[in-house]
Amino acid sequence: MNAGQPFFKLEALGNDFVLLDHRQGQADPAPEKIRALADRHTGIGFDQLLIVKPATSHVADVRVDIFNQDGSPARQCGNGMRAVARWLEDEQPDRHAFALSTPAGLVSTENLGEQGIRVEMGTPEFGPHATGLTGNIGIGEVIGDIPGLIRFGLVSMGNPHLILQLDRVPDAGIVQHHGARIGQHQAFREGINVSFAHLNEDKVIDLRVHERGVGPTRACGSAACATGAFMIQAGQSDSPVNVDQPGGRLVINWRGERDPLWMTGPAQRVFNGIFLS
User: For the chain, which domains are there?
Assistant: First the structure.
């Protein structure tokens, strides 16, 4: 990464990003550089780094590579896709829809104005195989004893999610302790995002997420998608379902079966900057 390179800070429900425009073939920063930039005291600070590159297929406008704040690659980031869509529309104000190629597949976005930006996140996949569960350890043994646990499920949105439905709104202690313990368990090949969800009387999902490579986060778009799909498939909720996280609300639309899932929510640019070193 060269001094003088522009960067863009964006956020979606408090899930914050730095975006780099590498459409001219610039080299990606090394993992140690990503970790340094992600530090909120000595760097810029972000949950994920989004790198925009030339499209590798004729159906996409750009390719987006995603890195967590610990330098590890990620296959998908739902809030990040809305952030990229916002940035692209700022660059091309006459357009309101884009196709983004990601490691998890093609993502379509559309700006709906005051309703926010909606993203087609693909089709949810369910079960151990989709989420990289390995070995002879049962998922119940991995989860262990969690206060208020009602049911659980494994869902992939291009990245792996474990959904834990609780009979209460999850507190920070449960998310931190059990999220870190389960998310790094050896039974998951590449780790897993752990979602703690409570369905309230209004059929709104209160969600807290321990995100792989990040930790507890104000919002996780793909986790909201996975949790919404889990609740709909289990007959606990109807589509569309509202998912509330500390950063705000996402709306999840999924008709089930093999239909694609849509996520709608806000995203905005916060500031632009230049790397000095």
Answer: 6-120+266-274 (3.10.310.10), 125-259 (3.10.310.10)
